[in-house]
Amino acid sequence: MATVFLPYALRKYASGAERVEVPAKTLGELVDNLEAKYPGTREHLIEDGRLKPGLAAIVGHVATRRGLLQKLDSDTEVHFITAISGG
Question: Which are the contacts of 67, defined by CB distance < 8 A and separation ≥ 6?
Answer without folding.
Answer: 27, 28, 50, 51, 57
